[in-house]
Amino acid sequence: MSVIAIVGAGHVGVVYAAGLAELGHQIQVVDIDERRIAGLREGRIWFYEPGLPELLERGLKRRRITFTTSYADGLRRARFVFVCVPTPSTADGSLDDSYLRAAFARIRAEAGRPAPIVVNKSTVPVGTGDIAEGIFDDGRFAVVSNPEFLAEGRAVEDFFHPARVVIGTHDRTAGELVAALYAPLRAPIVLTDPVTAEFSKLAANGFLAMKISFANTISKIAEGIGADGEGLAKALSLDPRIGAGHLRPGLGYGGSCLPKDLAAIASLARRFAGSADLFGAVDRVNREQRLRVVEMLTDRFGTVAGRRIAVLGLAFKANTDDVRESPALAIARQLADLHARVAVYDPVVNGQLHPDLAKDLIRSRSAVAAARNADALIVATDWPEFSALDLGSLRRAMKGDLLVDGRGAFDATSVRRAGFELFSFVAPARTRPAPVGVSAA
Ligand code: UGA
């Protein structure tokens, strides 16, 4: 058992606090936000993450987690300090490391002796390992870069079953001590230098973004040539060199991570690879995906002004209440700007909308309520509950018959059988039988 301080009670910090407590450690979380800390002491988490409230409660009941706004209290007797503060994008796409520098400076000023090993989990501008070593320059601290690969909505699962753990440091002993914390998770460990560890996070997110834009482009081609999008995805994903993840075509990626890290990697590519063409194309394809919906509705109706359009889902993906860079919000915004009456429903997103947008939307209490009298319905987030909706009830509630399935929620045949005209991002399956040797499963 180790005493571990965690600086930053955000998405990553709280998941690590609850997860490391479950592994038997004593956790001390520090955050400067008093309200956040007061809520967390009572087990109230300020964001939606499945399984996390239960895990946190277990840690609190076993008295393995404390929350404080005092660095001195949080760092007391800590063997490790995990730094989990935000690193937002700046205007040129690079990452803003000011919160990180401030946290490092407070840790240096307030840590006792012996000093804790500083474990940086924040996504950082590549080279921040060196910056950290510059700040922690009095010989007391070892610094380790340990990027997090948690995906929102499945962060608890990702914590306990990581695909890999990357540890970057110039201090081998410290690296091995951090690696030992993860030993119970039985994940492959990559022990490397800080810059490699930091860049591995950006490169992974850049690749995931590229895969999604690839899938979206391929799906358009498939539609043009009459290939079946689902069969195609299956054929691709069975190749272990390609892999199944992040190949789902749809409205494209959003969230705080992929867009931000793509911008950061593009900024590095401009400086060190001669051009950022590859990442520029990934971003362009992604933006065009969401525009296609509005263009299609405009083509279809002549104008969307005065039309009621239902948007199901506001979160950037299922199982989160995060709306940052959400394709759903971008579409709702565009439609409202074109004077459509936009009725929205999301199972968990509540007060998170900017007031300027919220005032232009009709908030509905259910999917069917949003669909009532609508001319068209857009499935914008892949919430599982949308796939389970009764298509007949939706269709009867609506005035029009257009369904835009932006997330592959429904099977095309059932949608058409319910009387809808379907606009989908997955190229439709042909009706002729599958060729011999290809299983439909
Ligand atoms: C991503 C990475 O997956 C994590 O490994 C990483 O730790 C995290 O960023 C981060 O940098 O902190 P996240 O943004 O939570 O996680 O979500 P993803 O599951 O990667 O999805 C990102 C976006 O891609 C979503 O908008 C999703 O709807 C979209 N997506 C995903 C697709 O359009 N198609 C797919 O096949 C998969």
Please tag this protein with its features:
single chain; 441 residues; alpha/beta; Rossmann fold; 6-stranded parallel beta sheet; globular; binds uridine-5'-diphosphate-glucuronic acid
The geometry reads as globular
Could you tell me how far the N terminus lies from the C terminus, measured between alpha carbons in angstroms?
47 Å
- Number of E-type strands: 14
- How many H/I helical runs? 18
Average pLDDT, rounded to a whole number, is 93
The amount of beta strand, in percent, is 5-15%
Which class of the largest domain in CATH terms? Alpha Beta
Could you state the CATH homologous superfamily of the largest domain? NAD(P)-binding Rossmann-like Domain
Q: Can you tell me the number of structural domains?
A: 2
Largest β-sheet summary: 6 strands, parallel
Overall structural class, as computed from helix and strand content, comes to alpha/beta
Question: How would you portray this structure in words?
Answer:
- The chain is α/β, with parallel strands linked by helices and 441 residues long.
- It folds into two domains: 3-192, NAD(P)-binding Rossmann-like Domain (Rossmann fold, 3-Layer(aba) Sandwich), CATH 3.40.50; 193-441, Rossmann fold.
- It is 43% helix and 13% strand.
- It has helices at 11-22, 34-41, 52-61, 71-75, 98-110, 128-135, 155-160, 172-182, 194-225, 229-237, 258-272, 277-301, 327-337, 355-358, 367-371, 384-387, 391-397, 412-417, and strands at 3-7, 26-30, 65-68, 80-83, 117-120, 143-145, 165-168, 189-192, 308-312, 341-345, 361-363, 376-379, 402-405, 421-424.
- The chain has a six-stranded parallel sheet, with helices on both faces.
- The longest helix has 32 residues, at 194-225.
- The chain binds uridine-5'-diphosphate-glucuronic acid.
- Uridine-5'-diphosphate-glucuronic acid binds at residues 123, 148-152, 205, 208, 212, 246-248, 250, 252-255, 257-258, 261, 316-317.
- Uridine-5'-diphosphate-glucuronic acid (UGA) binds next to helix 9 and helix 11.
